[in-house]
Design brief:
By secondary structure, the protein is an alpha/beta fold. About 30% of the residues lie in helices and about 20% in strands. The structure holds N-(iminomethyl)-L-glutamic acid and fe (iii) ion (FE). The site of fe (iii) ion (FE) has 5 residues, from loops.
Length: about 475
């Protein structure tokens, strides 16, 4: 926990009809030896005997590219020692146990025959929304396109209409089970966008919801302002006025209230063109925002090149990126965030050319793009399966892209994304013997336990096959951030 601020007590709701879930019980550390020489601070938790501990450690302080996308830093029979919310030792089990100060209060988790990974960093999500849009899902199955549905008043506009009618509290309550599901699938940090408000008041409301969720939920949320997600209905004949509102009112107000780190835009044919995107993103940059773009998703408009020109931290989607776009992004150090869940959810045949990007040396990251329109999934393991099967990424590349590289895509690589001393104790224990099983065994949850900021959360199935639900239970009863 950071600081000593009063904790917000938050009890995870259990599955329907089962009440609140319990915290995961620890086993006591049996080999505690009080006479052991004190070599470093006492540890609160040790995870030991892991069959494979994937540390993702590296001396390189930049996103992984090319062959380094397969560097997992595997330790067999590995252990991680944790003090409070931080990692204090990583290595072979024997080495770690020799190094640290075990006390009677130290808890131990035996990860024998299990794999341990850093928590996933889901670097592109839209988790705050009101209505679901399953009717559009069916319309697409019957042959309508995403753009046709949007043009007839569905799509983002339908989410805007519904979100505007909800209070902050209602939106918080709707988002909590989604975050619970993310945590249960091994995600410990997310980027979270606004973009369904599209008025000054409703965009601020969304960002305040994200801020509150960050306080009350174990997952860390990194906020992004996405006022340029669509032209709202009331400005449909006056798009210039809406762009003016974004530039002159929304961006300065969001900056003044420090409600977002990043500014994003839907740069797409029929939404915001290249000129408009440049104008909006330049204004955001001048107010201190780091930039992200939804780029080249449905057409080859050139958002990837604009991302390079403006020095964006990432360009996301990239289904239709061309060679020049990849080259320019590489030259400017823009990370390609690939969102195969959106391709799958929209039933697209085109996936981003991940192999070409990797061969050309572009750093790539993976995320869910969780949203009610194009990618209704909170599951990062599902994204890994899609990345492997539909984009031909190897399991190792997919893991690097969804941990350390996605941490870089949200500018948090010094805190999360790998299991290294000094970083947050955000770890996932998997009920598998080889990390390759995670994308291979698709559509199921193989998480045994999630450790977030040093607190242990049970899996969705309790590890004993008893529980089938979203994760719940907090060893600390809540958190203050
Ligand atoms: O990333 N492409 C734009 N935004 C979302 C979809 C939003 C929606 O349909 O509600 C995406 O796919
Ligand atoms: Fe998106």
């Amino acid at each position: 926990m950071e600081g000593t601020a009063a904790r917000v007590v938050y009890n995870f709701p259990g599955p329907p009809g089962q009440g609140t879930l319990r915290a995961q019980p620890y086993s006591a550390f049996s080999s505690a030896d009080p006479s052991k020489e004190v070599k470093m601070e006492s540890i609160s938790l040790v995870i030991q005997n892991a069959r494979q501990l994937l540390t993702l450690r590296s001396d390189q302080k930049c996103p992984r590219t090319g062959e380094h996308l397969e560097d997992l830093g595997i330790i067999e029979d590995g252990a991680v020692a944790i003090s409070g919310s931080k990692i204090v030792a990583v290595g072979k089990t024997k080495e770690v146990l020799d190094q640290v100060n075990i006390t009677k209060k130290t808890k131990a988790i035996d990860a024998k025959d299990k794999v341990v990974l850093p928590g996933f960093v889901d670097c592109h999500t839209h988790p705050v929304f009101a209505n679901t849009r399953e009717d559009e899902f069916e319309m697409r199955i019957k042959g309508k396109t995403y753009q046709e549905i949007a043009a007839s008043g569905g799509g983002i506009k339908s989410s805007v209409k519904n979100l505007r009618s909800k209070s902050k509290e209602e939106l918080i309550q709707l988002a909590i089970p989604r975050l619970d599901r993310m945590l249960s699938y091994g995600t410990t940090t997310i980027e979270a966008k606004s973009g369904y408000g599209l008025s000054l008041e409703d965009e601020i409301k969304m960002l305040e919801v994200i801020k509150e969720l960050n306080k009350i939920h174990p997952i860390d949320l990194i906020p992004t302002f996405l006022g340029a997600h669509e032209i709202p209905e009331e400005y449909k004949n006056n798009r210039k006025e809406y762009i003016k509102l974004i530039i002159e009112k929304m961006i300065p107000e969001v900056a003044k209230r420090k409600l977002a780190i990043f500014c994003d835009i839907f740069c797409e044919k029929g939404v915001f063109d290249i000129e408009e995107s440049r104008e909006i993103l330049m204004a955001a940059k001048n107010h201190g925002f780091k930039l992200k773009l939804h780029a080249d998703q449905l057409s080859a408009l050139g958002g990837s090149k604009l991302a390079a020109e403006l020095g964006a931290i990432s360009a996301d989607h990239l289904e239709f990126v061309d060679d020049e776009g990849i080259e320019k992004m590489k030259e400017s150090g823009v990370i390609g965030v690939l969102l195969p869940g959106a391709c799958f959810g929209l039933g697209m045949r085109e996936y981003p050319p991940a192999r070409k990007m990797i061969e050309k040396g572009l750093p790539v990251a993976l995320a869910t793009d969780f949203n009610p329109g194009s990618s209704m999934t909170e599951s990062m393991p599902m994204i890994l399966s899609l990345a492997c099967l539909m984009m031909r990424m190897t399991p190792a590349e997919a893991i690097v892209a969804s941990t350390i590289n996605s941490a870089y895509a949200v500018d948090k690589a010094s805190d999360v994304g790998s299991t290294e001393v000094g970083k947050k104790a955000d770890l996932v224990i998997w009920n598998v013997q080889n990390y390759k099983e995670i994308p291979y065994h698709f559509g199921v949850n193989l998480v045994d336990r999630v450790i977030k900021d040093g607190t242990v959360f049970p899996s969705s199935h309790g590890g004993e096959g008893k529980r089938v639900s979203a994760v719940g239970g907090s060893a600390s009863g809540g958190r203050g951030k």
